[in-house]
Amino acid sequence: MENREPANSSQNIKQSIISEELIAEGKWVKLEKTTYMDPTGKTRTWETVKRTTRKGQSADGVSVIPVLQRTLHYECIVLVKQFRPPMGGYCLEFPAGLIDENESPEAAALRELEEETGYKGDVAECSPAVGMDPGLSNCTTHIVTVTINGDDAENVRPKPKPDALVSHCSCFYKHSVFKLANIHIKCRGEEFDSSSES
């Protein structure tokens, strides 16, 4: 039988980082020029953003999927709306934030949820650390699912922390795509009434 080389022998070349050079550094992030070897063995460079705040945690932060459960109501997911300067406008997001030093992802998730929405809940599941935008940054997050007992007195009229600078809303699981589309239109018009979506 005739021996043939693999169609793409470059797949055997191990890609690796050769060097990292600091370009600029701010309080929260830094920009580096990353030199690496591509699958063909060629040396290339990449502009990489990294957080300056990581201190040995398994991830930089947490993203919380809050599930609001109330008697005689559909289960809802809770979202927050806040102005994001890089986007030049308002964004609808899951509650999220950085993990403090010596803080577990679960504890960070419950803290961020209460700070941004006023809700208190229980952790149902925590994912491994996952990349947020690996083509740009090494930033990672844990995705934490939290259940909220909406019948509990402390969750009937939740209020975010005064310095949270966000407002929250909830949308049904059922037909949630259409709900989110409607909320997105409201955000673009900078009109937002969280009570209308609860």
From TrEMBL:
Q: Which GO terms describe its molecular function?
A: ADP-ribose diphosphatase activity; nucleoside diphosphate phosphatase activity
Look up the EC number in the record and give it: 2.7.7.96, 3.6.1.13, 3.6.1.58
| Keywords, ordered alphabetically | Hydrolase
Q: Which residues does the UniProt record annotate as the domain Nudix hydrolase?
A: 57-198
Question: Which reactions does this protein catalyse?
Answer: ADP-D-ribose + H2O = D-ribose 5-phosphate + AMP + 2 H(+); 8-oxo-dGDP + H2O = 8-oxo-dGMP + phosphate + H(+); D-ribose 5-phosphate + ATP + H(+) = ADP-D-ribose + diphosphate
Give the domain of life. Answer: Eukaryota
Q: One Pfam family, please name it.
A: NUDIX
Keyword Hydrolase assigned: yes
Indicate the quaternary assembly: Homodimer. Interacts with PARG.
The Swiss-Prot or TrEMBL record describes its family as follows:
Belongs to the Nudix hydrolase family.
Protein name per its UniProtKB record: ADP-sugar pyrophosphatase
Organism of origin is Equus caballus
